[in-house]
Each structure stands twice: as structure tokens, then as C-alpha cells.
Amino acid sequence: MKSKHLIGLETTPKDDISEFIDTGFLFREILERPIKRVPSLTGKNIVNLFFENSTRTKISFELAEKRLSADITNFSSSSSSVKKGESLKDTIQNIHAMKIDCVVMRHPVPGSAIQLTNYVDSVIVNAGDGTHEHPTQALLDMMSLKEHFGNIKGLKIGIVGDILHSRVALSNIFGLVKLGAKVKVCGPPHLIQKGIEELNVGVEYNVDNLIEWADAINILRIQRERMGVGIIPSVREYRRFFGITTERMKNHKKEIVVMHPGPINRGVEIDSSIADSNQAIILNQVLNGVAVRMSVLYLLLGNNDLK
What we know:
Shape: globular
Order of helices and strands: HEHEHEHEHEHEEHEHHHEHH
Strand content: 5-15%
Number of helices: 12
Number of strands: 9
Helix content: 25-40%
Radius of gyration: 19 Å
CATH superfamily of the largest domain: Aspartate/ornithine carbamoyltransferase
Largest sheet: 5 strands, parallel
CATH class of the largest domain: Alpha Beta
CATH architecture of the largest domain: 3-Layer(aba) Sandwich
Distance between the termini: 9 Å
Number of domains: 2
């Protein structure tokens, strides 16, 4: 691997991205076995440092670490000295003094993962830093696409929803473009960054046009916890113009793959009938999330030649 850490896909070489995904398929086979544990990271100490609430990502990382036989420490900011005013630097350095090999961190502040590399020598894996990046989510999304289509190069991928506040969208854009996919984003104009075309993506404001164009669509939720009040006039209006509804999909007589990183707001950005349909690969994404995180931890912690 050319990378010591996984901070974001913007700075991750194309070859490393491909290696993470391809190795993920090897671990996917292990997850299908009766005994799903391998001794690859025996003796390695990993701390899961989550300063934000998480269900899928946190559980997925914990499962990946256990399947690799690593020693795990879970950190919760709500029950730590952070509540007493301890700084991120002091928290991290105290944990690092306990001889931690890898830190998996989720933090609400963009750039916190890269800042962490200044404090400790451990391998750092970014599990989401504010509205910046969420690289392992994009890796599992791309792994799921490759599993379904056989390849990523040349695929037409639409990303629908709150692009402005989505770290998932940004990581997917960086990764998909590097691997040769064509990407378009779609959502309300005020929820799409100005100048996003500079990232080699197209912009579409009509979701029906996007559906007709795309091979697959990745549907994002409206992140009200990040945007405040009043950004969208109403849930009903958002669903009418950008929701992936049963009625809308019936009007498009084509096969299209439906994805969602979760959590799903059923009846808002996607209807239950679509989320639970055969064209949705949402549960495949969940399983691939464990496999690709096993891949990331194995490749970053198992290579002694990292620079």
C-alpha cells in the first residue's frame, strides 16, 4: 500500500482504492464461512474513537476487527473526560500511550482525522469527519457496484439528495471518478456545492432525467442535524421533486440499481417498496461494509513497509 492511513479518497491513490476493494472480496468469502474469524491481526490493538452517534459504521468496524482477531477498545465521548473539557489532542495522546496500533475515528469536525496524524504514530482510519469524507462508506459502495456489474469503469452513477452536507457523496465522487465511472449529482440547487463540476461530475436538477441516464443511483437522506431549520420548505415538497417513489419508478421502464448508505428515511427520500425491492442492493452494501473494513484494517496494519 502507498498509504499509511485512510483519511479520505481524495488523497488515496487509485491503485490503493482498487486494492481495498479487491481484497474486500476475499474477506467477503470468509464472511460466508461457518467460522468467520481469521487470525490476521492477532495482537494488534485498535481503538474505536466515536465522537458522533453511529450504528452501522461502528458495528461494522467492530465486527471487522473481531473477525480479524484484533484486540478492541471502544471509546464513547459521552462517558469520557471530553465532557470535563479535555482536548482532542490530550484524549488521543493518552490513548496512544496505552500502545494502540490503530485509531478508527468519527468526529463532527472536518479535518479532524488528518489532524490526528500530527498527534500519534498509529494508523488512522477516518470513519467520518463532519461534512468532509467517509472513505470506507464509499469503498463499500464501490465494492457493491463492482459485485453487481463486474466493473466500475464506464458506469453511470447518480447521487441524489443532500450533496452539500454529505461526506458520503464527496468520498463516492473522489473514488468513482478515479476508477473511471461517470458521476452526476442531483438535488435542490441550494443543497449542491457551487463549483462541484470541478470534481469532474455533472449536475442534474431533475431526478427523472437522472434516472433515465444512470445505471445506478445512490440515494442520500436529508441531514437536518447538519443543516439547521428551514433549508427545505417541507418533506412533502422534497419527496415530490426528488424522492425515489413507487410512482416515479413505475414511469421509468428500465433496470436501475438502487443504493442507500443509511439511515433510511422511508417515505421521504425513498419509498419502502423501492428500498425492499429486488433492484435495491442496500443489504449487500451492509455486508460488504464489514468485508471492506476488514480489508482496510488488514492492508494498513499488516504491511510493515508503510511510509
